[in-house]
């Protein structure tokens, strides 16, 4: 079932980020980031939970993408489902929910980036109607 994420989901969010996305982040960092982003109107976080237990199985996190060269849209920051529950339509339901949020907010598009090695994810995105429009490299510099 689709639902809002809550503070009680934080340990499972950390697990999902590790197991589904490969991000090894501490529980404390997950807790801090959740507290900061949860009430930020530019961020939307939707969870999908088991109907019987209400335990979180996956989530989508998007932020408003605004710039000078395009209309406003959503940028998907994370779409993740626990590995044992992938292939059951959860990701599709989460993406449909975020698409509905985009319509309600009158946003022009939804964009996302996916690692070049995540071929299965690329197939999923194509299957639900997303097009790959360019190849990119990510550059990052740690600020000390």
Automatic annotation (TrEMBL):
Keyword annotations from UniProtKB, A to Z: Acyltransferase, Transferase
Gene Ontology molecular functions: acyltransferase activity, transferring groups other than amino-acyl groups
Gene3D superfamilies: 3.40.630.30
Domain (N-acetyltransferase) ranges: 1-144
Keyword DNA-binding in record: no
Keyword Repressor recorded: no
One Pfam assignment: Acetyltransf_1
The name this protein goes by in its record: Phosphinothricin N-acetyltransferase PhnO
């Amino acid at each position: 079932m689709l639902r809002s994420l809550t503070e009680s989901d934080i340990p499972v969010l950390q697990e999902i980020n590790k197991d589904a996305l490969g991000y090894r982040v501490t529980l404390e960092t997950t807790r801090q980031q959740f507290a900061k982003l949860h009430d930020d109107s530019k961020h939307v976080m939707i969870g999908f939970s088991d109907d019987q237990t209400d335990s979180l199985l996956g989530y989508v996190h998007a932020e408003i993408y605004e710039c000078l060269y395009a209309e406003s849209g959503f940028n998907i920051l994370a779409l993740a489902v626990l590995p044992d529950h992938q292939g059951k339509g959860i990701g599709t339901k989460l993406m449909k929910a975020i698409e509905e949020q985009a319509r309600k907010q009158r946003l022009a598009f939804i964009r996302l980036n996916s690692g070049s090695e995540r071929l299965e994810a690329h197939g999923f995105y194509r299957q639900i109607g997303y097009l790959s429009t360019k190849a990119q490299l990510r550059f990052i510099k740690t600020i000390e």
